[in-house]
Design goal:
homodimer; seven-stranded mixed sheet; 13 helices; three-stranded antiparallel sheet; Aspartate Aminotransferase, domain 1; alpha/beta; Aspartate Aminotransferase, domain 2; 42% helix
Amino acid sequence: MARSAVAAKVAADMKSASFIREMFERGRRMKAQRGDDHVFDFSLGNPNGVPPEQFFAAVRAVAAERQPGLHRYMPNAGFDECRAAVASFLSREYRLPIDAKSVVMTSGAAGGCNAVLRAVCDPGDEVILLAPYFPEYRFYTEQANARPVVVQTNDAFQPDLEAIAAAITPRTRAVLINTPNNPSGAVFDAAACRGLAELLSRHDRPDQPVYLVCDDPYRRIIYDLDWCPTPVHHYPRSIIVSSYSKDLSIAGERAGYIALPPALPERDVVLGALTMLNRTLGFVNMSAFMQRVIARCADALCDVEFYRGNRDLLCKALLEYGYELIVPRGALYAFPRTPIPDDVDFIDRLANHGILAVPGLGFGRPGYMRLSFCVDRGTIERSLPAFRAAIGEVRSR
Amino acid sequence: MARSAVAAKVAADMKSASFIREMFERGRRMKAQRGDDHVFDFSLGNPNGVPPEQFFAAVRAVAAERQPGLHRYMPNAGFDECRAAVASFLSREYRLPIDAKSVVMTSGAAGGCNAVLRAVCDPGDEVILLAPYFPEYRFYTEQANARPVVVQTNDAFQPDLEAIAAAITPRTRAVLINTPNNPSGAVFDAAACRGLAELLSRHDRPDQPVYLVCDDPYRRIIYDLDWCPTPVHHYPRSIIVSSYSKDLSIAGERAGYIALPPALPERDVVLGALTMLNRTLGFVNMSAFMQRVIARCADALCDVEFYRGNRDLLCKALLEYGYELIVPRGALYAFPRTPIPDDVDFIDRLANHGILAVPGLGFGRPGYMRLSFCVDRGTIERSLPAFRAAIGEVRSR
């Protein structure tokens, strides 16, 4: 029998990912037929803000330096000056004393998540994901030879502590959370963060340490809030993974990091493992040039008001048209319930009106859909009649 | 029983890597005691050439562009202009028509190797490595849930075709080669390349396709040769993995790529798998900024004459002192036999004379040692009496 050109698992993953590709292809065909102005693409999660001026200034300054030695390998965790700048920023942002040697620069938060799960998971371990979840978490978990265990959040997309407690088994090695959340836009509230920390503290034992991995790249993209709650202060065995992809609108630069809070048990062992894995997994280190840039603008932030305006415009209209929606308090996505239970069917109907969206099914939460509002303001404005028509169509049946 | 803070395999890997860290620490102590000028560090593989002027010019030009949209995500395989520039360069360098869509930009060759092995290996597959080999290949192979099978090269570090044929089993999925070679500096000669291609052609069957993965980052760092032979032309199921780390002396920028030759069977399936894995493994894409830089200097090359001068100075002296050495025809390393069979013991003696080197044991070839000559010329000059003294010491016993 002929053997596939690629691994069986990879072939299966490619097949399951093919519907996104089909949607992408459909979008391309639609744009060719209708013209770009009549296709409203809410399917992508590519932050479209403008990087802040500090970023461009830092890029120019580093480019002007002409330092032949600073494009070479550095220690795998990164340049000292970059780690120090990030640590200083994080200490303020999280209100925790995070030191430079507890920061590992990574290829975005995606690279950081992969290194963390690889570092802590033995084959067969379980990683709890809270649905709706970022679909890539499944890959990250499986690539670490661990098994994803999905627990639904409640109707407000807040952690369901009882359901999480019920899902913990002797093989549970980590709980991976993401707040502000992709795709729901939910910000886990302070009570939920404390409750989660208390729950895990009851289960964390010397013979079964359970890590809380906080994937926090949207932490500063928040609306109507001054501070994003976090369980990190309340649970010592927490690991922060994040990036500058959203803060600076530079997702393509792969500027991320892992930070270990001061109270993490066996911090040096974990740090050693992460540093080694950053190398052996093939990342080796975050781009030297971008590290030098980040060292100069580690506090900078894109214009969050731009996203807030998009959120307000889209969400107000959706609510007015009758969509059921928890207004997002963070991140770049609205996650309304689809007016009919079959989200894939409704996505199809939206497409007939020129709107591209992603079904909740792909995030482990069918019956919903993700709308990225990191798009041009004009796209939202022009799309509104189509959103109204689509819900009208199913309501009038 | 208390469970380790990290995965068992990771803890074991950290332990086995600890002797390199100990050597590094020893070097630091030595420098503190003797002063920097009296410690000769030949242990690192960090290309220390100066990036060519085209690279710096490209960095300045891209920095001056101020294109907010070009720091965002792009297709995971990379910007079209970057892939096209690399494809055009490769078509000339390999004398093969490689098109832009057959190139995937990666986080260095390390990121490329990980993606390739992940793409093709099912759990339990075997990957043949030719010793002496780059030690990270073991990690890359094991992370793809495959098993490294080590085959020794001959005394001239050329592939031993009979030994490779004997090592092929029904589970063999790939042969991973590296010419010019780290650590031996050997360039596989044309006959060996053709022989390897013929051997694999006999074994490659529909029910057992065998990939030849060519990790070629030193391809243009050659001495006394105009062209580095390659089996790629003679074996269709070849995959090229490489980087600009050595060509431009920018190893810290993680500028690498995978290129699929035109004759590769099921090329689109392999390309789809590599593109997906580039994303799911957490690389996502090569740094956007550096892609735009590479697009402008994909042909540039550092000053190879600088390395040739280092090679000549070091190798001439070693031969004169009585070291047994195949003079390297490529890469940045000399790999002499240690004058006593116990390479770790001899490395220890060298250290007493202020010289840091890596035992052949770490590369799967005990009885040898790796000396990186990507160091300052002065380091080589000042180290020579120490090399002479060390061999004299063991000869006079």
